[in-house]
Amino acid sequence: MDGIALLTITVLAVFVGFEVVSKVSSTLHTPLMSGANAIHGIILVGAIIVAGQASDPWVLAVALLAVVLATANLVGGFVVTDRMLEMFRGRKRQVTPGRKPELEEPEAKEGVR
Amino acid sequence: MSLIDPVWTSLLYLAAAVCFILALKGLNSPRTARRGNLVGAFGAALAVATVFFSVRMDNVPWILGAMVVGSGVAAPVARQVKMTQMPQLVALFNGVGGGAAALVALLELPHTEDHWVRVAVVFTLLVGAVSFAGSAITFSKLQELVTTRPVVFPGVPALMGAVLLAAVGAAVAVVLSGSPALALLLLLLGLAAGVLLVLPVGGADVPIVISLLNAFTGLAVAASGLVLGNVLLVVAGTLVGASGTILTRAMAAAMGRSVAGILFGAFKGGSTAGSTAVSDRPVRSSSPEDVAVLLGYAQRVIIVPGYGLAVAQGQHTAAELALALESRGIDVDFAIHPVAGRMPGHMNVLLAEANVPYESLKEMGEINSEFRTADVALVVGANDVVNPAAKTTAGSPIYGMPILEVAEARQVVFLKRSMRPGFAGIENELMYEPQTTLLFGDAKESLTKVLSAVKALNLS
Fold first, then answer.
1. To probe the interface with A, which of B51, B96, B230, B360 has the most A CB atoms within 10 Å?
2. What predicted TM-score, i.e. pTM, was given to this entire model?
3. Residues spanned by the domain of B120
4. What is the pLDDT of residues B133-174, one digit of tens each?
5. How many independent structural domains does chain B possess?
């Protein structure tokens, strides 16, 4: 991909980034930060590419270290965000008593009260 | 060499990028937040699966092994961490992400010819290293491995200047020569800069720094995407960089501070060191039993939880106290200041964990008009966020910060450790007002005592 196309995408992504968080309530600042933190764990894709093309054992070793770190960021980030948001779930039921709580999905197994 | 058509790779990456945008969007509202996070995780899984089929891949067993190790360490920690310790865990995950980005850039350097690509390499190296080292220090501060107070020594500004100057020099040299040795030097300089950046930041400002470093890591990831020519990394990194910047500013604004003030204030000796001066003006202090009577015979009580409650981990006791009061027919609400707790929004998480029902948690805009009707405002471990000086004293460091107007309540009870001022380092006039009572002690211990006194009232 040429430089101008990448630049265009970058600039547009900046504005999307500004836009999606501009109205967030302070209640969700911490989960939002944590969620954004998980998303940059996608550097894992970069680490995998580098590790997949490594031929020198030292390069591979460093690349695998990057894979470990990036995976920790990605997996840990999403799990901890989910745990934070799980805390909001019990409250949901009480806000809209008539409706079926949407966040009460079958795969949610922990902390059901 | 790839197993799937490059067009498909691009489309799958695009789908992942859309998932990330939807994830951030979903995190905007409590109703959709959890689903949003799951969508983000799905997008990440999709992207990781795609990469295995889109480029030449050797060492696949090794890579999968490394991923198992990474998730094997991170997932259980993330699942078991106490909610009060969550900020430092987020800092830690953020740091390792920055570290990974820096390593990727370091390894890609030998494959670069173009000077512009090398500019992206040095940017990733430097910012990733700053984020890694800064997050490590932030983690140690929040985990209390090192002091949470600002660490300031006379040479810091000069040292920081020297490190940054050397880093710029090394960066230019790397761009021109592509030398791996110089890149390694740049990495070390970045680590040093990260340490120096965060050491002088203290106390309540640390969470803002986590958010800032989060944005840094996002930018490093975006730059690494430019290095690898990977659009997904560019988009995801930029999204995090941009949203993280806005979030950092929003957090700082909610605390009545500026980001620059937090980072550079300490260099001038003016960060949130907090004054340790203790005033000797007379205040009305009382016993847990007196507070229990005050609460037990009120009709409406508003509890204002703050940083002190989070630090003392007293949220469960506060929830129990609210229950005990409600069983006496008293109307109890929690007034949540945007920056109460150790991070913005943290108090909501802590109280929700302690099973305080959603309707009892009132945001500032909602509750401020209700203090007038409250018999007692019980302020637990909060100070600056209820300080009327923010409205009345133009020269005050917190002037202009939105506050909870507890002064409107008929009676105000402060549970405080001491008369020491809050992080802003200014006195709270409210404590000397005639309607104010103070109960000194650790937030959790004081709450426990008040709770048992209230229960005794219930029995009699």
1. B96
2. 0.79
3. 80-268
4. 999 999 998 887 877 777 777 788 889 899 999 999 999 999
5. 2
